Amino acid sequence: MKNVIDRYSITTIFFGIISIALITFFPSQETDSGLSTKLFFSALLIGYLYFTILYKNDYVKKRATSDITIIIFLLLVLWELLTQKLGVLSTFLYPSLHAVIEQFKADGIELFIHLSASIKLLASGVFLAIILGIPLGIYAAMNKRLEFVLRPIANVLSPIPPIVWIPYAVAILPSFQASSTFIIFIGAFWPIFINTLNGVTNIDQRYIKSAQTLGLKPWTMIRKIIFPASLPSIFTGIQVGLILSFILLTAAEMIGSSAGIGYYVKLATDYGNYAKVITGIIFIGFIVTIIMTVFNKLENYLLRWRN
Amino acid sequence: MKNVIDRYSITTIFFGIISIALITFFPSQETDSGLSTKLFFSALLIGYLYFTILYKNDYVKKRATSDITIIIFLLLVLWELLTQKLGVLSTFLYPSLHAVIEQFKADGIELFIHLSASIKLLASGVFLAIILGIPLGIYAAMNKRLEFVLRPIANVLSPIPPIVWIPYAVAILPSFQASSTFIIFIGAFWPIFINTLNGVTNIDQRYIKSAQTLGLKPWTMIRKIIFPASLPSIFTGIQVGLILSFILLTAAEMIGSSAGIGYYVKLATDYGNYAKVITGIIFIGFIVTIIMTVFNKLENYLLRWRN
Amino acid sequence: MSTITFEDINVVYEKTEHYALKNLNLEIQSGQIVSLIGPSGCGKSTTLNLASGLLKPTSGHVKINGQEITGPGLDRGVVFQSYSLFPWMTVLENITFALQQKEKERKEIITKKAAEILKKVGLNEKVQKSFPSQLSGGMQQRVAIARMFVLDAPVFLMDEPFSAVDEITRNQLQDLLLKLWEEGETKKTVLVVTHNIDEAIFLSDRVVVLRDGQIQQDILIPFKRPRDRFKIDQEEAYTKIRHDLLKAVSGEYN
Amino acid sequence: MSTITFEDINVVYEKTEHYALKNLNLEIQSGQIVSLIGPSGCGKSTTLNLASGLLKPTSGHVKINGQEITGPGLDRGVVFQSYSLFPWMTVLENITFALQQKEKERKEIITKKAAEILKKVGLNEKVQKSFPSQLSGGMQQRVAIARMFVLDAPVFLMDEPFSAVDEITRNQLQDLLLKLWEEGETKKTVLVVTHNIDEAIFLSDRVVVLRDGQIQQDILIPFKRPRDRFKIDQEEAYTKIRHDLLKAVSGEYN
Amino acid sequence: TETTSTSNQAESQQQTENNEQTLVDFAIGHLPTTGHSLYYIAKEEGFFEEEGLNAIFHPFSNSGEGITAVTAGKLDVGTFGTPAPLTFEEKGAKIVFLGGQMGTGAGVVSKPDLAEDLRDIQNFKGKKIATVKLATGDVVLRGALYDAGIDYEKDLKIIEMNSPADVIVAVKKGEVDAGVVWAPFVEKAKQEGLEIVKYSQEYYENHVCCRIIADETRFDENYTNYVKFLKAIIKAERFEKDEKNKEKVIADIKKYVDVDPQIIEKDIYGGYVDQSADPNKKAILQMRDTMVDIGYLKDDKDISPSIRTEAYKEALDQLLNEEPNDPFYQSLLKRFEENNL
Ligand SMILES: Nc1ncnc2c1ncn2[C@@H]1O[C@H](COP(=O)(O)OP(=O)(O)OP(=O)(O)O)[C@@H](O)[C@H]1O
Ligand SMILES: Nc1ncnc2c1ncn2[C@@H]1O[C@H](COP(=O)(O)OP(=O)(O)OP(=O)(O)O)[C@@H](O)[C@H]1O
Ligand SMILES: [Mg+2]
Ligand SMILES: [Mg+2]
Fold first, then answer.
1. What does the pLDDT look like over A223-277, one tens digit per residue?
2. Whole-number pLDDT of residue D251
3. What is the model's pLDDT at position E191?
4. Chains contacting chain A through 3 or more C-beta pairs under 8 A
5. What's residue E209's pLDDT?
6. Which residue from B156, B184, B36, B145 is spatially nearest to B96, judged by alpha carbons?
7. What is the spatial order of strands in the sheet that C214-220 belongs to?
8. Beta strands D189-193; D33-37: pairing state
């Protein structure tokens, strides 16, 4: 118990209660903040308590959870004050918290349907980028001639906005789905390829030499030495590739489809429905956090040999 | 002389001459390939010879130049054959080489004016990202509490498509120019920040320990140890940031401005003027190659201590 | 005046349950040269890291002149087991950079001092402009030693400093160490890890034998200084001490 | 049968104009143990790297049984100066992985073999599951030695293999080396770099002294095997050889 | 030389100061298209200056961003289609519609062998049609389908694309049967061997496309400037409609919209794009009704108060005051009454 209740958790709980009181009792401009907002704040507080108990023996994580929770409360209260309570910000660009929560409730199932479309698209695009980018990167790094040809090509092609490829993708590829996948693929490919190439090039020569004396077959060399040694860099590449593919999601999902979380946001932007835009962004942020957490856990496990 | 004329240069020159012959004597579908195309091919060949002589003592670079030149010739001839010569591809999406060269000639000066606007925008955005991202990354890595707060925030915010910030940037920032700069900035910021953070976190502890025994003041520690030790990673971050900022250029330059190379391409896309689109892309590719070459040279010089 | 005291030290590395040091009590008096020997993995480097302030004990106190050590500092020079030069600085820069932390001198003076100490450890001018990655292992180690020597701290902490160099160079470096130890108003306090028993005897006032994170033996070396390394090994006491140490060290394998 | 021959070798590292090896001619006969000694930076590691096939000479030929060496291979085991274990494998995996390259055995047999050799170099079971970064310097070095020993190649190339371990362990490892050397049908060919003159004499059939990339001296060691390290140093020949070697090595500083 | 250069500098400085005294900055947001020609003509022919305005153009590629800029007070006026501002208005953006710029101008294109068939709207059933969502043509087509009793969600498949260029590619490749595009892509599609099934005005006569919008408070506070602005635009319309200015008009537009002069001519004088400054309140309301029909908007309020025709009327009155006998202005007055009252 002493592990759970410390000065961080007390401050945070205090903050949470003050926040709930503020949105409840501060007079609203137009409508009331709504029950949903209060429930949401309470849920946040309960979520915080859950993590505090979960991390009860890890001081650093506990403190971080507390810090982040306070920041979230601060931002939310500020948002609510400026929109709903004081009406300083236009409700057009800055929908009230209440409106966003209502939007969430209204679009809940729709969002998950969109999500599944996006995940399918992302998974296939990024997967393609990984299974092409990593082997090609390793192969190019091991074959200087290829490297000297591919590096300048990568330098020229990688910064070209992937959206300019869209008409060509539509013209050449068999289906809209394939075109969308291609746009995601091309965004994720370059960082994965370049980072693999650089990672392999920068492997500490001692490991390579040491491996050579064992007379490894090329395939064993790649699988057991080159791949694990360049794995830290490959992970960075995949991370950047993932970020880029998220960024391209909106563009990719506007190619002849009407599903996907990027489509949802883009459409909302075009319609000036900012409650929807913010709902979409928060949802994306949430999903991305989950994906990145899993990804980082995997990374930490696979790279546990680093000190 | 023996250094210049080897089997690579002979193959390449042979290829170049065949290409010129092909576009000259192969019957065209509509108009002739035009003098400019032939001159362009010849210029390419002369450019190749220049680099071969320049690199006459560097076998690897010479071979790479030759490989790349042959690839370029192949692509160009294929392009010309499929468009101008055989008319297989539609001239709407695939303008003939001749049309692109003519476009270049027509828009030459304009392109450079656009370029200077883009460079200004890129420079200010990326510069801001560098002077904020690197110190913040270093500071966060040295202060675990801050790191544990900023890392999840970065994980959530970095994959949000920078374009969704545009309306808010337009609403909040004082000018369109500032909004454009902000979009470039936000694109370049995250990779620089995250890579700096990771770079500092992954510094070999031996260097830190060694430095600590010298009783360094924090500022010296940062400047002389932490910064150079994480420089390889910081450079990767800047490289990715640059790529992202190029990708965002089109979006950023369409915020109430009418200058910039991204604007040029986007406008051409909107008008369906693909000769212009391709001209713009090739021009961007050219500029990016120059920027990246300078950047890599700087990187190699500053990191020359790596073996 | 720099007495180092270890009081009831326990060290357990993260994620292991193994005691790297267990209930260690040790005092190194000011001006003494103390060698730490023992089988590899017995906790020598760990002990040195405690004295340098780079490692905090899991429990117990490490003090210098009665003051608890809170972190590393310029009052204690350190040579690490694996030569920890900064790879982005040339050999000369590695030295001048360290010197600049200690004294605010003009650049030329610092460079001159650095070049001198490098020459003393046997590295010529051509080597000074190289990056560490261009040097052989022994050369890198000598640069690390030079870097510590030039700082002239009242305490020297050295982890197998001479293990990567040939016998002649090693002898010269030992002589240099002893010369620097005596120089100045008060003698330096030196804690040196070695696995060479002869070296331990030749250099030290006391030799401490560690085993499994505990002190196995703490032996006084009675020979007068200056010592002649080719003479003391003829003395009777030497053979006895050497024998004792060997026995203490080899206990592990019986 | 594995005779190694160096013919008119010159080595100049990229970007330097300095000859790391200059006109070197050397033959190491099959079954011989040859030590390379000399001041640090004299080219010992360079010579070893040539024999391992990891470095190509700028000019000249390195041959094994008259066949030019084109690259590294399982016919030559190598221990590097800086322990080059794979940090992403545990200690045990480092050994089993190497073994798997040589023989297609069942997993348990390989693991058993690996555990045995690790015990022989003094590393217990708990250590076997650690990653290299969790070990002390000497322990890592012993893993590297174990990895070479277990491969049982006809040629051993070792670069300061015992410099990071204490005297007792060193003696044990030396004995192990000699045992493995004699084992099997034909004796192994061993080229070992050391900076310990006593070690060189105790182990070798011949000691080659390098200086500035050239052979300074090539001395035959006449003592019969098996040798007793505590007896041969009492012999007259020993003192003379030791003196000669010392003089040869120290030439640099006169 | 130094003194002359400084005096030159002083002189030019004074000049700009003079300009600033007389000319009021007026920020105009637009989409770079031939359809927004009145702005270009007014600028190039000096009509803005005549009215004391210093027009500054800000092109956007995305209507959402442009409308946001208007509501954020970064633009005095903007022209970003009609459906987009209507949806923004519904979402609470405080904007007013004060004038017009372009009407009609979209078209449905298909491969030649299908075109004849598709002229009968009933034949859209079971087809795949590519559109760019929220474009005027998209609303028009869906509206026409609705009116013809076709459910665009069930009876056919509408596929949304990023841009008209993508639409053309998709149609050409046979990925879809037909597509909705707008100027200048209607002409481009023809060049690409596609055929025009119908122009948009064949579905809805005189439907509006791009309306001039402004922020409500800004409009009220700077009302006189808006009148001046509209006067310049009306003058531009008169200039444009005068056939003898054709070459000049095309040259003026070419400065801002870099497409083939032939396409400009086709767009401006070809009859399928209507260039008019009239707010056309009725057509806006009709467009809104269509959007309600097809489910884009809710039928929950009257937007008439947001359509502020008074500035246009006042501008027209002032012009008629200045040139009472101008037949063109007189015709505009008549048109205004037909379209707005
Ligand atoms: N990678 C390299 N680049 C440039 N010069 C090098 C490199 N490696 C070694 N040298 C130089 O070559 C010479 C011989 O080096 P080598 O490593 O063979 O010495 P060594 O005899 O093994 O020394 P030590 O006993 O210190 O390990 C030295 O002068 C060294 O500076
Ligand atoms: N970073 C670490 N993580 C986990 N265990 C460690 C770590 N460093 C050292 N150890 C363990 O602590 C014990 C003592 O290690 P230490 O490095 O002090 O040995 P040492 O006496 O210096 O040995 P050597 O002579 O081989 O350098 C060893 O069992 C080692 O495995
Ligand atoms: Mg140690
Ligand atoms: Mg060496």
1. 999 999 999 889 888 988 888 888 888 888 888 777 888 888 888 887 788 888 8
2. 60
3. 80
4. B, D, E
5. 82
6. B36
7. C76-79, C155-159, C189-193, C33-37, C206-211, C214-220
8. parallel
| Ligand 2 atom showing the smallest separation from residue C213 Cα | 14
The verdict on B252 and B215 lying in the same domain is yes
A236 found inside a domain = yes
CA distance A236 to chain B (A): 9
Residues of C in contact with D196 (CB under 8 A): 167
Show which of A89, A115, A130 is a domain's final residue.
A89
Q: What is the mean pLDDT of chain C?
A: 89
The ipTM, to two decimals, is 0.82
Residues 127-186 of C with CB under 8 A from B: 131-134, 151
Q: Which ligand is nearest to the CA of D20?
A: 1
Q: Is the peptide bond before A152 cis (omega within 30 degrees of 0)?
A: no
C170: CA distance to ligand 2 center in Å? 25
| Residue range E8-13: mean pLDDT, rounded | 46
Rounded CA-CA distance C243/A206 in Å is 39
Q: State both tokens at E200.
A: 């948009």
Q: Which amino acid is at E116?
A: E
Residues of A in contact with E92 (CB under 8 A): 90-92
Q: Which of B93, B170, B271 sits opposite E69 (nearest CB)?
A: B170
> Which of B92-101, B148-157, D173-182, E305-314 is predicted with the least confidence, judged by mean pLDDT?
B92-101
Calculate how close chain E gets to B120, using CA atoms only, in Å: 18
Sorted by sequence, the CB contacts under 8 Å of residue B169 that are 6+ apart come out as B178, B179, B182, B183, B255
Instruction: Provide the shortest C-alpha distance from residue B301 to chain C (in Å).
Output: 11
DSSP-derived pairing of the beta strands C155-159 and C76-79: parallel
- pLDDT over 90 percentage in chain D: 48
> Given CB atoms, is E93 within the 8 Å cutoff of chain A?
yes
- Asked if A84 and A28 touch (Cβ cutoff 8 Å), the reply is yes
Mutate to test the pocket of ligand 1, among D13, D49, D54, D80 (most ligand atoms within 8 A of CB): D13
Domain that holds residue A152: 101-306
Which chains are within 8 Å of E by 3+ CB pairs?
Answer: A, B
Whether D252 and D134 share a structural domain: no
Task: Name the maximum alpha-carbon separation found in chain D.
Answer: 58
Same domain, A111 and A246: yes
Answer with the one of C102, C123, C152 that is the final residue of a domain: C152
Q: How far apart are CA E60 and CA E62, in angstroms?
A: 6
**Once rounded to an integer, what is the mean pLDDT over residues E16-28?**
70
Give the domain-ending residue among C97, C121, C152.
C152
pTM, whole model, 2 decimals? 0.84
Q: Apex CA E281: angle with CA E316 and CA E334, to 5°?
A: 40
Q: What is the pLDDT of residues B200-226, one digit of tens each?
A: 988 888 888 889 888 888 899 999 999
Of C106, C188, C192, C202, nearest to C151 (Cα)? C188
The DSSP string of D182-226 is: H-SSSPPEEEEE-S-HHHHHHH-SEEEEEETTEEEEEEE----SS
Identify which of B188, B259, B179 has the alpha carbon closest to the alpha carbon of residue E66: B179
CB-based contact D39 C168, cutoff 8 Å: yes
- Determine the Cα–Cα distance for residues B209 and C93; give it in Å rounded to an integer: 18
Domain total of chain B: 2
Range of the domain at D208: 1-75+156-254
> What H or E segment, with its residue span, contains residue B77?
helix B59-80
Instruction: Answer yes or no: are the C-beta atoms of C143 and C91 closer than 8 Å.
Output: yes
- Angle A54-A55-A60 (CA atoms, 0-180°, nearest 5)? 165
Cα-to-centroid distance, D133 and ligand 1 (Å) = 25
> Is the domain of A84 the same as that of A120?
no
Residue E205 has pLDDT above 90, yes or no: no
Binary contact (B240, A269; C-beta < 8 A):
no
D189 beta partners? D155
